[in-house]
Design goal:
There is one protein chain. The chain is of the alpha/beta class and 516 residues long. It has two domains: 3-230, Rossmann fold (3-Layer(aba) Sandwich), CATH 3.40.50.300; 260-465, Class I glutamine amidotransferase (GATase) domain (Rossmann fold, 3-Layer(aba) Sandwich), CATH 3.40.50. It contains 15 helices and 26 strands. The strands form six sheets. Strands 2-9-1-10-11-12 form a six-stranded parallel β-sheet, with helices on both faces. Strands 15-13-16-18-26-25 form a six-stranded mixed β-sheet, with helices on both faces. Strands 19, 20, 21, 22, 23 and 24 form a six-stranded mixed β-sheet that branches. A hairpin with a 6-residue loop joins strand 19 (349-352) and strand 20. Helix 1 runs parallel beside helix 2 (61-69) and helix 1 packs across helix 14 (467-485).
């Protein structure tokens, strides 16, 4: 067979990524050869793929997660177009893993045919190789101002003949209006591909929804395939959920007598925040994303995560008073960690003629390092060791490269050949490696050192926590939720046979069915 499905959503963060992953895991359990696909992703959270020639490329983090749900290694064709926002008006274009251009409103129309052709070709190749390809849309399919240039939502579905289900987030409220409105604003040819709906993030008794589901079916002629419940354990790789003040996950109780409190700065252009998730899986470690200097003052560990706009976010750090809070923290001998762009901020200076074009700007001067941006981006996977030879692995995505280091600092990590990477001086740590804290022994050793520096003698790491295991349990949970709460028989027929014929056209403003 060569089946397919498009999972669209009424909004961003409606749950398209996790529903797609859950359907992928369910199909894999059925013995189906299945792959994920997202024609275009706009995100600064990315994963690295290294091809047979050793060349590294990027794809969206969500598609790497969905690949794992399928039991596959990430493939750049799973996300052929990745847009990485550097400002509110422009994004770096990553095409089949390689940065090729910068896109803005002025040149999108000119670039669009190339992007669409790349996406359509990648999908065709995947459909020739796998039994089923589960595609994820982007944003909402009813962005009618962009419909004529769309190749991600119903433009993709029209091109490939994909049946489409629309996911709505009931936790936001207004889900029935959002689902009806999504359908009603589409033209007849697009509506013919919308086969039905999925309600996501419901809290309570699904029986209470029955009158609404029946009315939605009556006014649209389309069923709801199921109601997925809210689940607090679905937080890993949730790239749209990095809200201010949010505690990542559900921290388990400490193994010792004290907690370890981690405050991570929610930078405006934060990237690859999955580094924080690895810390948050540890029992007794509370990780909060924040923009409040007072929360940095109260924390045991302050983290400056990655960013797509290092110099601009460093300016923002200074304007908001957060830079002073980071400096106070380090001056008190309490630990600070910088990852990728956050590491670059901790040094003496940044020479940037690539992202911001600002030239030489001062850093926070907490590490005796100097960074220069180069146009050719480093995109690679890395292995090595840390501390007393503890194995560590990760990946690198950055334009900035360390070009100088003064005295008083030691490497934080070492590559497999023994070359030093990153820097440590006193309580301040920095590395360009993303994903390093997913290595369980290294993470435990680092957190033990953090607890010592923070004066948390009662904190103990858990010897059995597995980050990879936590992620796999999340994927299994998604598969369980799909099997238990969706009409999988009907969903299978949809994937196998395509859009049902004769679906009615619903004009905007169609009156509701009479009660009773």
């Amino acid at each position: 067979m060569s089946g397919g499905l498009l999972v669209a959503g009424t909004t961003s963060d409606a749950g398209k990524s996790v529903v797609t992953a859950g359907i992928c895991r369910w199909l894999r359990r059925r013995g189906v050869s299945v792959a994920p696909f997202k024609a275009q992703n706009m995100s600064n959270n990315s994963a690295v793929v290294v091809d047979a020639d050793g060349r590294g490329g990027e794809l969206g983090r969500a598609q790497a997660m969905q690949a794992a749900a399928c039991g596959l290694a990430p493939d750049l064709r799973f996300n052929p177009v990745l847009l990485k926002p550097g400002s509110d008006r422009s994004s770096q274009v990553v095409l089949l893993g390689q940065a090729v251009d910068t896109i803005d409103a002025a040149n999108f129309r000119a670039l669009r045919p190339r992007l669409a052709e790349t996406a359509f070709t990648a999908l065709a190749e995947l459909r020739s190789r796998y039994d089923v390809v589960v595609c994820e849309g982007a944003g909402s399919p009813t962005e009618i101002n962009l419909r004529d240039a769309d190749y991600v939502n119903l433009g993709l579905a029209r091109h490939a003949g994909l049946p489409t289900v629309v996911v709505g987030d009931i936790d936001r409220g207004g889900v029935f209006a959002a689902m009806f409105g999504t359908l009603a604003l589409l033209d007849a040819a697009d509506q013919a591909l919308i086969a039905g709906f999925v309600i996501n993030k419901f809290r309570g008794d699904p029986g209470l929804l029955r009158p609404g589901l029946d009315m939605l079916a009556a006014v649209t002629g389309r069923p709801t395939y199921g109601v997925l419940p809210w689940n607090v354990d679905l937080w890993l790789d949730a790239e749209d959920s990095l809200a201010y003040g949010r505690v990542l996950g559900r921290p388990g109780p400490p193994r010792g007598t004290q907690w370890l409190d981690v405050a991570a700065v929610r930078l405006p252009r934060i990237s690859n925040a999955t580094d924080l998730e690895a810390l948050a899986v540890e029992p007794g470690v509370r990780v909060r994303l924040t923009v409040e200097p007072a929360e940095l003052d109260a924390a045991d560990l302050v983290v400056l995560p990655g960013t797509k706009a290092t110099v601009e976010d460093l300016d923002w750090l200074r304007r908001t008073g957060l830079a002073e809070a980071v400096l106070r923290h380090a001056a008190a001998g309490r630990p600070v960690l910088g990852i990728c762009g956050g590491f670059q901020m901790l040094g003496r200076s940044i020479e940037d003629g690539v992202e911001s074009g600002r030239g030489r700007v001062p850093g926070l001067d907490l590490l005796p390092t100097e960074v220069a941006f180069q146009r050719r981006k480093t995109v690679t996977r890395s292995t090595g060791s840390a501390f007393d030879g503890i194995p560590v692995h990760g990946y690198e995505i950055h334009h900035g490269r360390m070009v100088g280091a003064g005295s008083g600092a030691s490497p934080f990590l070492r590559y497999a050949d023994g070359t030093g990477e990153g820097a440590v001086r006193g309580p301040v740590f920095g590395t360009h490696w993303h994903g390093a804290f997913g290595a369980d022994p290294f993470r435990r050793r680092f957190l033990t050192e953090v607890a010592r520096l923070a004066g948390r003698a009662g904190f103990r790491v858990a010897p059995d926590t597995s980050f990879a295991g936590a992620r796999e349990r999340t994927l299994d949970l998604l598969g369980d939720l799909v099997e238990e709460h969706l009409d999988t028989d009907r969903l299978w027929r949809l994937i196998e046979s395509g859009p049902p014929p004769g679906l009615p056209f619903v004009p905007p403003g169609a009156p509701p069915a009479p009660a009773g």
